[in-house]
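step: validate -> pass
step: tokenize input -> pass
step: predict -> running
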Amino acid sequence: NAETWPLSANIRKELDKIELWAWKGMFRLPKTTPTAAVMFASGALYASIRVQSKQLIYLHKILRKPDNHWTKATLHALRQHNAGWCKQINENLNDWDLETDWESIKSTSPNEWKRQVNEAAEKKNRIKLINECYKKERGTAIAKSKTEKLIQTLENEEYSRSPQPYMKKDK
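step: predict -> pass
step: emit ->
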């Protein structure tokens, strides 16, 4: 039921941290294993990006409901006040470079909207992975030594997120 959570930046960080802790525990990795390396090797989307993706898909479901449905009425009330979940959804639409006009979103087919959201999620995930490969020193971004080799792979247009072959268990 993550579709209606209003996620602050701190909650998104906490979600990602908890999931990363679980990944490291599951694979018995040291706590010092770089986040970017774990997420790259597993081929997983960050938890916060998965939640935001679900929220954007849920927005489409609400917009396609009849005008008198309580969820749609609630959404429009929140929109009038630019508050809560609605405010966050509008910020996500802008941040993810998705359509912001609700009537256009409503008229998009469910499959097409999912495709657009999934493409945007992949872009956000890639950007987040690349950012994890850098550290800031005196206002300058410097590649982290443990993950600098990932940067070239992640910046390659051919890159497609998937578990690395050594992560797949062949029987």
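step: describe -> The helical segments are 9-26, 35-42, 47-63, 70-81, 84-95, 102-107, 110-132, 148-155.
step: cleanup -> pass
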